Amino acid sequence: KKFMVVMNAATSMIITKSPYMIRTSTTLPQIMDTFGKWAAKSGIKQCYTMVTDYGPGHDSEAAFVNAFKGAGG
Fold first, then answer.
1. d(C-alpha 43, C-alpha 63), whole Å
2. Global pTM?
């Protein structure tokens, strides 16, 4: 039951592992959601994604793809 401050955890699920954790930075899904919307609104209709095969990469790709498709990409 020790309090932990996570300074730079990009994966969204990190702080769900303990009720004693807090994050002080953004997550990759927050950034990639905005990027996916921007890409679609900038006229990009098709794209490919390539990410690292672990938590942050999977989070990033899912957020980008959902936002991109949701915005018409």
1. 19
2. 0.82
